[in-house]
Every structure is written in C-alpha cells, then in structure tokens.
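Internal tracking record. Fields below are filled automatically when a chain is submitted to the structure queue. Please do not edit lines marked as system-generated. If the sequence contains nonstandard residues, flag them in the REMARKS field before resubmitting.
Queue: standard
Priority: normal
Entity type: single polypeptide chain
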Amino acid sequence: MSNPTQLRYTKEHEWVSAVDADGVATVGITEFAANALGDVVFAQLPEVGDTITAGETCGELESTKSVSDLFAPVTGEIVEANQDVVDDPALVNSAPFEGGWLFKVKITGEPDELLSADEYTAFAG
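SYSTEM-GENERATED OUTPUT FOLLOWS
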C-alpha cells in the first residue's frame, strides 16, 4: 500500500490534497479504505454549494460488503463532485488517488489532526 507523500490523511481514511491557488483541495479515500470496503457499487457525494464541516459526515460509499460514511477532512464549500465516480463507483477501488477522487472543496477551516503519509501509514498498518 502506498500513500502519496504530497497528501494529508485523516484517521477515518480520507485524503486531502494541498490547497491550490484558489483555496481548493481535492478529497478522496485511501487505498487502505478502498481495499477494506471491497467493490464500491454506489457513491453518494456532497453536492456543489454544500457546506461541509471537518469530522462530520458528508456522504457515503456503498460496497458489496457494507455502507460506509464519508467524513469531511476539512471545513468548506463543495465546488465540484466527481461525476465519474457517481457514474462508475468502481473508480474508487481502481484509482483511489487519481480518477477515483470524490470532491473538491474551497477550504475555510482545516483541523490540526491531519496526518502526513508516514503518520497515516503507521496508523493504518
């Protein structure tokens, strides 16, 4: 399992990219989470314009094994949801750090407890 070093991670197994020049970051779930879920068959993502709060539920992923809540890694406003994942949820399994990203958020608040790639790898085992 590899965790890209340029990303930061939550203990709920979401990742968040560095913020771009417009204050927007991309969010997804980790390869560890995707493997634990099994084959993802449905994705309910937050909608453009929704406000999310770090640590709170903002959507869900349904797999052949279970339904898992998505937790917001940051606080902000949704500026884009990945329609490709809604149309083909298996992207979360096949490319969790690339085409399987979930949404983009204009960040207004960031928690202190985001983990580095090394910290997340140690946490996830």
